[in-house]
Amino acid sequence: MICQECNQRPATLHFTNYSNGEKSELHLCEQCAQEKGELFMMNNGPAFSINSLLAGLLNMEPAFEQKKETFKMDQVSQCPQCSMTFPQFVKIGRFGCATCYDAFREQLTPIVRRLQSGNETHNGKIPKRIGGDLHLRKTLDHLKQILKHQISEEEFEQAAGTRDQIRELERKLSASQEGGE
Amino acid sequence: MSLEKFINQAVSSWMSDDGPDSDIILSSRIRFARNLDEFNFPTLFTNGEAEAVIGTIMERASQTSAAGFGQLELIKMAEIPPLKKRVLVEKHLISPNLAENSVHGAVLLSGNEKISIMINEEDHIRIQCLFPGFQLTEALKAANEIDDWLEGYVNYAFDEKFGYLTSCPTNAGTGLRASVMMHLPGLVLTQQMNRIVPAINQLGLVVRGIYGEGSEALGNIFQISNQITLGKSEVDIVDDLQSVVRQIIFQERSAREALAQTSNIQLEDRVFRSYGTLAYSRVIETKEAARCLSDLRLGIDMGYIKNISKSILNELMILTQPGFLQSYAGGPLKPNERDIRRAALIRERLKMETKDELGG
């Protein structure tokens, strides 16, 4: 089929429009479709948003396809707090509450990795009050890495200092855990 | 009301104040997305929960004032006319989404409008700090202070692995969106933007027009922001954006130099034609106004035009938007009436500049 617009290139995109029960068809090549693009995007009401993009991306999630088949059998994929189901999340691209992250943790991890270019673990700010001893644990992990590096570089004097810092932190951590119990 | 008085009331400090590299960077913005642990996200929450979210934040705001930012004023979306909402959107103080869709939306604004805290948009809380010029680090510092001040009282939804939990997982982790608004006429005129935009995208950054997602690059103004919010620290995200922005600034300056050397008279001609259009036209559309204002600002930056203040682009780009024109006119205007008003407002504003010159 030849593009209806330029009558030269082969038509690769086919649009069908129903309005008032009447059907109209349009066959375009990619180039002409792009030129007409504004028409198609803008007339379709709700703008092309990040959420619809995201919903598209989630729909391609293979893990979800499998879930869909077994969905009627077990209702596992429902958030206990807000009752949102995983298919609902996929449709609107947004969660209902904080607990959803826990309820869908397994399905979510590969999606987050894809959205955040391979990252899956938060590495930034931690809320001071509710973060609890997470601050200490993150610092501890960081210091242990430094220690490893210093030992491999044979910087033993600095390594001794780092080791003392680690011991100090570990003492604080166990104290705070005992206090919390 | 006189135009001078209207402008004084309408202009926020990010539009009129000078900042570092303000010949290219109009403004720097930091946004944090946060949610309260105890309520459902705005996706699903009940009316009662929505009110409780506003109540919780207001309680915090009434107890203490945010360190160094003065009293914050609460504006509820349900209580202001559509025109006023539109003006807040045009000033970048609230999102179009909050203005149009959020029944229970509200915003807390600081006096100088550098700080705005949107309530019940896509997330319960969106902290925004908007600074003039290239000041991402300063804006991040301010946003962190506001964040700590709120966190001292409310419980945020936070997960060890996913970080700050947001209703859309594209914001989870830091909840941070850092962006700069850049005026890039040199790169557009030398037709380099088509090459630069894909390169920027490859670095995990997003390029948009002046009013965000899906908007056009009116007046050669581009918004550049980070895409990834999880896995990197806030400082790293801002540093990465800054280093790319520095390179774009360098490229824009070289493009301007090249233009001055190779087509000086053509450029000067273009600048003065646009100046003429702005100074004398009787009917002008948003697009043409934006293009001419961009030329005029380029002319000021490159020294062709000496007696006009730099802030004219920032100011008039905002003041000639439909919402502002109508609020200056005191009521709704049809599109053709707006174009007449717009032309009149620009002429009058330019007269203020030259009058100052003659008087001084």
UniProtKB/TrEMBL annotation, chain A:
Protein name: UVR domain-containing protein
Residue ranges of every copy of the UVR domain listed in the record: 137-172
Superkingdom of origin organism: Bacteria
One GO BP annotation of this record: stress response to copper ion
An example molecular function term from Gene Ontology annotations: zinc ion binding
UniProtKB/TrEMBL annotation, chain B:
GO CC annotation: extracellular space
EC number(s) on file: 2.7.14.1
GO biological process, one term: phosphocreatine biosynthetic process
SUPFAM superfamilies named among the record's database cross-references: Glutamine synthetase/guanido kinase
Swiss-Prot/TrEMBL catalytic activity: L-arginyl-[protein] + ATP = N(omega)-phospho-L-arginyl-[protein] + ADP + H(+)
Motif (RDXXRA motif of the pArg binding pocket involved in allosteric regulation): 338-343
InterPro entries per record: Arg_Kinase (IPR023660), ATP-guanido_PTrfase (IPR000749), ATP-guanido_PTrfase_cat (IPR022414), Gln_synth/guanido_kin_cat_dom (IPR014746)
Domain of life: Bacteria
Keyword terms of this UniProt record: Allosteric enzyme, ATP-binding, Kinase, Nucleotide-binding, Transferase
GO terms of molecular function: ATP binding; creatine kinase activity; protein arginine kinase activity
Mechanisms controlling activity: Appears to be allosterically activated by the binding of pArg-containing polypeptides to the pArg-binding pocket localized in the C-terminal domain of McsB.
Binding site for ATP: 27-31, 92, 126, 177-181, 208-213
Chain's role: Catalyzes the specific phosphorylation of arginine residues in a large number of proteins. Is part of the bacterial stress response system. Protein arginine phosphorylation has a physiologically important role and is involved in the regulation of many critical cellular processes, such as protein homeostasis, motility, competence, and stringent and stress responses, by regulating gene expression and protein activity.
Protein name as annotated: Protein-arginine kinase
Taxon lineage: Bacteria, Bacillati, Bacillota, Bacilli, Bacillales
